[in-house]
């Protein structure tokens, strides 16, 4: 977790929502099936502009000291429990935090009958989630990781991890740099999480070559009932 998500809002909409300047608006396109190393929008603070900017970055952080970008696909998530002290993430956590806009994220479960079922975690009444992220420059562009934490409430039925979701009241502190790790990495409230829907979706999302709004459409009659067998290790096609 988190290994696949959706971000489909336009650069103009995201710039307005996050009160940010869109410096790479032309390179961002809707994506219902974001996979590791894909270019997607992030919101970060620009020291040169002194304001938030909406930028394109590739999912999978490459540390500035890395010799190449081969390990990017393994650096898509940073654990909240170790992010402040990890050799790869400590500096970005201290100085280069970002928001990662998402319509929602996907997880897979293996049901008792052996079949895999995909679920999409998304705001029940629409809207955009802000996942906590860390960014790093690499080459001519940017790379990033999503910060994850222990799953809470019903989300733990789908997976034992979830992205660290930030309500709008926490955006400024997250982007500012510095701060107390314990406060910055606090999980969202039960009230915030109650606004999420755990939606069963079709199998097409399992193939990264598929895209489009049908991937997030609910599957009628499929519910998340009882404890899962175990999360499925996702294979990228």
What structural category do the secondary elements indicate? Answer: mainly beta
Terminal-residue CA separation: 17 Å
Q: What ranges have pLDDT less than 50 throughout 5 or more consecutive residues? A: 231-237
Q: What is the percentage of strand-forming residues?
A: 25-35%
pLDDT averaged over residues: 89
Brief characterization of the structure:
By secondary structure, the chain is mostly beta strands.
Please, could you describe this protein's structure?
With 237 residues, the chain is mainly beta. The protein is built from five helices and 13 strands. Strands 3-1-8-9-13 form a five-stranded antiparallel sheet, with no helix packed on it. The longest helix has 7 residues, at 11-17. The chain is globular, with a radius of gyration of 17 Å. Mean pLDDT is 89; it is low at 231-237.
List keywords for this structure.
five-stranded antiparallel β-sheet; 237 residues; 33% strand; single chain; mainly beta; five-stranded mixed beta barrel
Write the layout of secondary structure elements.
Layout: E1 5-7, H1 11-17, E2 21-22, E3 31-34, E4 39-46, E5 51-59, E6 77-79, H2 90-95, E7 97-102, E8 104-110, E9 116-123, E10 129-138, E11 141-150, E12 161-163, H3 171-176, H4 181-184, H5 190-193, E13 196-201
Parallel strand pairs: 2-5, 5-11, 6-11
Antiparallel strand pairs: 1-3, 1-8, 4-5, 4-7, 7-10, 8-9, 9-13, 10-11, 11-12
């Amino acid at each position: 977790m988190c290994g696949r998500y959706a971000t489909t809002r336009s650069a103009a909409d995201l710039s307005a929502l996050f009160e940010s300047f869109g410096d790479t608006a032309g390179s961002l396109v809707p994506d219902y099936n974001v996979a590791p190393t894909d270019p997607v929008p992030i919101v970060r603070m620009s020291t040169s502009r002194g304001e938030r900017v909406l930028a394109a970055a590739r999912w999978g952080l490459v540390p500035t000291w890395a010799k190449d970008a081969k390990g990017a696909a393994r650096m898509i998530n940073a654990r909240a429990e170790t992010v402040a002290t990890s050799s790869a993430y400590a500096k970005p956590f201290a100085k280069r935090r970002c928001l990662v806009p998402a319509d929602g994220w996907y997880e897979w479960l293996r049901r008792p009958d052996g079949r895999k079922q995909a679920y999409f975690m998304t705001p029940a009444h629409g809207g955009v989630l802000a996942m906590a992220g860390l960014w790093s420059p690499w080459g001519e562009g940017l790379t990033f990781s999503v910060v994850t934490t222990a799953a809470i409430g019903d989300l733990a039925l789908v997976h034992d991890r979830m992205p660290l979701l930030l309500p709008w009241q926490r955006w400024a502190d997250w982007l500012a740099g510095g701060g107390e790790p314990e406060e910055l990495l606090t999980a969202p409230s039960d009230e915030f999480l109650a606004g999420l829907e755990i939606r069963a979706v079709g199998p097409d999302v399992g193939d990264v070559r598929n895209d489009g709004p049908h991937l997030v459409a609910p599957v009628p009659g499929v519910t998340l009932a009882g404890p899962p067998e175990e999360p499925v290790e996702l294979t990228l096609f």
